[in-house]
Amino acid sequence: MKILEATELGMCFGVRDALAALAEVAEPTTVTIHGELVHNGEVLAELDDRGFRQTPEADRPIPATPTVLVTAHGVSAA
After folding, report:
1. Residue 39 belongs to what domain range?
2. Which of 1-5, 23-27, 37-41, 46-50 is predicted with the least confidence, judged by mean pLDDT?
3. Residue 64 lies in a domain
4. Which of 15, 19, 28, 43 could form a disulfide with 11 if both were Cys (CB 3.0 to 4.6 A apart)?
5. Distances from the Cα of 45 to the Cαs of 36, 38, 52, 64, 67, in angstroms?
6. Is pTM beyond 0.70 here?
């Protein structure tokens, strides 16, 4: 088997910008992230440790926080 590695690794600009915005949040417990912001377990665990609430995209609960971050995937009209 031949394994190819990309010469460039990293996050798309949308995820990078969202993480930068979250870094500016003074009180993470006031923000719910709707959907999976990034497909990286370590980053998601770090956001959880900081106090951000996270809800699965499949769920449509009314957020318990005054602010909601919607991922680049968006939210359907359904």
Report:
1. 28-78
2. 37-41
3. yes
4. 15
5. 11, 11, 10, 20, 20
6. yes
